[in-house]
Amino acid sequence: MKTAADLLLTAYAWFCAIAVFLATSFLLGFLFKRGMGVMHPSLFFGDTPWFSALLGASPVFEGIWPALVGTLALVLVSSVMAIPVGIASGIYLSEYASARVRSMLGFAVDVLSGTPSIVMGLFGFTMILFLRKTALPQARPSLFLAAVCIALLILPYVIRTTQTAMEAIPEHLRLLGPSLGLTRWHHVRHVLLPSASRGILSGAILALGRASEDTAVIMLTGVVARAGLPASLWDKFEALPFRIYTLAAEHRSVQELDQGFGMALVLLLMTGSLFAVASFLQRSLEKRWKTT
Amino acid sequence: MNHVQLVRERWIRRSLLIATGISAGAILFIFVLLVYFCLPLITSGGMSSVLSWQWKPFAGEFGILPMCAGSLLLSVFALGLAFPAAIGICGFATVLAARSLARFTLVLVHFMTSIPTVIYGFVSVFLLVPLVRDWFSTGTGFSFLTAGLSLSLLILPTIVLVFHARLQQIDPALRLAAEAMGLTPVRQFLHVLVPAASRGLVVAAILGFGRAIGDTLISLMLAGNAPRIPDSLFDSIRTLTAHIALVLATDSQSMSYRSVFASGLILFLLMGAANFFIRRMDRGPGENRYENGR
């Protein structure tokens, strides 16, 4: 029997769903409207010929190319550090650890994933202060330091998605290894890991998106507004999210503001396509377990 | 197993353990480093100066309590907006909407998590700030309200996804029983599903709150960053996270620095406590009563 309360709550639920849909559409629509107009090679390279800019032969002053390269370098270095370690931890937590160890180390992973990114940035900042006082007086914020802090930030994501993917493997596959007399590692390596690979991969891809969007960590560990292409791991660098942040507060002209919208759109397309790939992998995984 | 295999198995086990230990080591290291840099505060008696209500670095006052209050007020406000909305959306996706519409809603919410925080901030600066300024015609638009609205949109997906995952774990038999008793979808959700997943509700709220407290960019870009207690929704405020970013970007006085380490330590301990609480609750008696299977 339907009552007034039923109707009211139904209306409320519809209202919430529609409101969120509208808020997101406004946000994206506004961004696309303002950003699409500047989607042009000159957004990336300014007046520099794109070919020599790509080769790094001539510097780019007007475009967002240095920031894009900085972000890509940051994502690459941090994921090279975080993803192997994260997958190994995930395997250990799901397949090897005793219940007690799993709960203790799992708590550490939870606290790490709960650590606000600004605190992770502060950690990198204090690390420089600490190194200056002790072993390395010439230590300074750099791309490498930022990558280490970002790696710590995304590590828990990789661990948890690996662990979840491993634990979701159906029971009959878990019996396969022992029944063939495989050693534990062979079982993990040749049976469990291949079955969990898509889940693990989608987690790793989401971690890449997380690494590319974070701003709070890098603003304390080596990003600057103008640096050009990063010359080495020990240099300061530019990054898309930080440029977007600074442009919001201190754009000097309409062109700069337009560039900000263009950058925001580029960043969104980047994280959005990573998200699409990850959710495609996830979905194909779910289908696979349903059919077997 | 022969000897070679045995040795290899042991080494693999060890290296995997070491990889896992990195997280624990990192957490410990972060904590120790923050405490180490806060120590001068405790030994030199600067603690009372930092734990005061005045932030006037040039007059030698370094109180961070206004920022603590700012962080708490803003997060409570954002949670107050996002939490009821999240329950509504979960109800919509679980019992009310047709299958395809429910799926679309969940994909949308999932997608929202992949939108960079800086984009929420950037778009709000040019879309929401002028709106708030014009509609209420007070202040600059960079206010508690603007930051709170954007922040609620930012933490909404966290709450929805956590709570929805808990709802999915409920034994389908419970839903069938409710259906058989002739409960309407709304009542099934309110009187059967939500109570069965009540702890999930608390966990989702805590995680959403933590996300709000820990977020830097929204408050930094939108809240105006005046270090005081707000009198109204249209006042400018400063959060702990924004305080850290601002001071490290500009100041170089040593006491300012120390207030930053104290802020970092407070944030760290707060999040640690939240995680500890979630853990305790999930382990408490009576959990998994209605959950299905594993």
Automatic annotation (TrEMBL), chain A:
| Keywords for this protein | Cell membrane, Membrane, Transmembrane, Transmembrane helix, Transport
CDD domains named among the record's database cross-references: TM_PBP2
For the keyword Membrane, the answer is yes
MF term (GO), any: phosphate transmembrane transporter activity
Give the subcellular location.
Cell membrane
Query: Pfam families from the entry?
Result: BPD_transp_1
**Main localization of the protein described in the UniProt heading:** membrane
Name the family. Answer: Belongs to the binding-protein-dependent transport system permease family. CysTW subfamily.
What name has this protein been given in UniProt?
A: Phosphate transport system permease protein PstA
UniProtKB/TrEMBL annotation, chain B:
> Keywords of this protein's UniProt record, alphabetized?
Cell membrane, Membrane, Phosphate transport, Transmembrane, Transmembrane helix, Transport
* A Pfam family the protein falls into: BPD_transp_1
> Where do the TM regions start and end?
16-42, 62-95, 107-132, 144-167, 188-213, 260-278
Kindly state a single biological-process term from the GO annotations of this entry.
Answer: transmembrane transport
Q: Which residues form a coiled coil?
A: none
SUPFAM superfamilies assigned to the protein according to its UniProt record, in alphabetical order: MetI-like
Where do the ABC transmembrane type-1 domain residues begin and end? 68-278
Query: Where in the cell?
Result: Cell membrane
> InterPro entries recorded for this chain?
MetI-like, MetI-like_sf, Phosphate_Transport_Permease
Q: GO CC annotations?
A: plasma membrane
Q: What is its main location?
A: membrane
Membrane-topology descriptor:
Multi-pass membrane protein
- Protein family membership: Belongs to the binding-protein-dependent transport system permease family. CysTW subfamily.
The name this protein goes by in its record: Binding-protein-dependent transport systems inner membrane component
